[in-house]
Amino acid sequence: IVPCFNEQEVLPETVRELGKILSNLIIQNKVAQNSKLLFVNDGSQDKTWKLITEFEEKYAYVAGIKFSRNFGHQNALLAGMQAAVKHSDLMITIDADLQDDVSAIYEMVDKYLQGVDVVYGVRSSRKTDTFFKRESALAFYSLMRRFGVEMVTNSADYRLMSNRAVNTLLEYKERNIFLRGMVPLVGYKSDKVYYERK
């Protein structure tokens, strides 16, 4: 599941890279033959939706959802999960810019096959961040802990979730969605995969 907002510059590479991963997983019999890349167009003003529809015609494994306007990243992820959960045993969310290491998907799927319901993609370091970004991230996680929010440090919205974990998540009736704070509440077996961010 890939949320998209004005991603025309990166989308061809994203489809290519994720398509390779998906093909390899199918060849290895780790995911079903009819698995898909689901792109959620979150009210893009550029050619993002046009590209998604072109890729849908070109590749059987590409599907798209189009929002009428920009509803925000978290809502795009949730809409993707709501659509995919009806057809999927597992779902992986990743941002379209692929700054998260796509090769971590292999380990995520392996952990799922070993019985893990939620696998978090976690940055192994923040050495590529600026001093300000590094310090503000530390302050953010510290503040969230003080508020009692359970979060996995240095993880964003790059994660794998099983069908039952997504169904449990979708039972929450939150209006102001913050998935990083909500996903840990589903309560199923979880694990982490570490990677270097680009």
Any overview of this molecule?
- The mean pLDDT is 90.
- The relative contact order is 0.17.
- The chain is an alpha/beta fold and 198 residues long.
- It has helices at 11-27, 48-58, 73-84, 104-113, 131-146, 163-170, 179-182; strands spanning 2-4, 37-41, 62-66, 90-93, 118-123, 155-162, 190-195.
- The radius of gyration is 16 Å and the shape is globular.
- The strands form 2 sheets. A 4-stranded mixed beta sheet has the order 4-6-5-7, sandwiched between helices.
- The protein contains 7 helices and 7 strands.
Average of pLDDT: 90
Q: What is the β-strand count?
A: 7
The proportion of strand residues reads 15-25%
Structural class, by secondary structure, is: alpha/beta
First-to-last CA distance: 20 Å
Low-confidence stretches: none
Major sheet strand order: 4-6-5-7
**Percent range of helical residues:** 25-40%
> Tally the helices: what do you get?
7
- Net shape: globular
**What's the alpha carbon Rg, rounded to whole Å?**
16 Å
